[in-house]
Design a protein that fits this description.
Layout (H helix, E strand, L loop, with lengths): L1 H24 L6 E12 L9 E10 L8 E11 L3 E9 L3 E10 L16 E7 L5 E4 L2 E3 L1 E2 L3 H4 L5
Parallel strand pairs: 1-7, 1-8
Antiparallel strand pairs: 1-4, 2-3, 2-5, 5-6, 6-9
Length: about 160
């Protein structure tokens, strides 16, 4: 009888341990915030030349289990505009991290491609905020360098 009680108690401990491990192994619940992003693209000098402008929205700092393992620029969505004013509504993934970054590039040569080994004329830029966006959010972007991806701009050089 004592053996049966010990086996039953052992099984109970194993089941409870399994349930606790299962609870902590689950990923965090996905949570989203609707964001109405708007802004304006600018050049360092002069007006923005004509051409389609492409944008990529990122979570600025993506979460990992260990804060020392957080990594920058987790892509959320892409969109385009036909001029320097832009507006886009998207679902910001609150469960993925914090902050917002938006990169932009102007298709200056009209080829529909962001730079090639022989054509390096598409100006690019990035704007970011450590604030997590919600509702109506404005962010202006200045195009400062040709043919630079978002990770060239962020994280900033020490």
């Amino acid at each position: 009888m004592r053996i049966l009680k010990k086996i039953g108690l052992g099984l109970l401990v194993i089941v409870v341990l399994f349930l606790v491990l299962d609870f902590f192994a689950r990923p965090p619940a996905e949570r989203y915030e609707t964001v109405n992003l708007s802004g304006q693209v600018k050049m360092l000098v002069g007006p923005v030349p004509g051409g389609k402008i492409s944008y990529r929205i990122y979570v600025l700092e993506s979460l990992e289990d260990d804060p020392n393992l957080n990594h920058p620029l987790e892509e959320v969505v892409d969109f385009q505009s036909d001029g320097p004013q832009f507006s886009h509504t998207f679902e910001y993934p609150l469960h993925m991290g914090s902050g917002l970054a938006v990169s932009a590039w102007l298709d200056a040569d009209g080829d529909g491609v962001f730079c090639t080994p022989t054509e390096r004329t598409d100006p690019s830029g990035l704007a970011y905020t450590e604030e997590t966006p919600a509702g109506d959010f404005t962010l202006d972007i200045t195009l400062t360098k040709n043919c630079r991806q978002a990770n060239w701009f962020y994280p900033p050089a020490p």
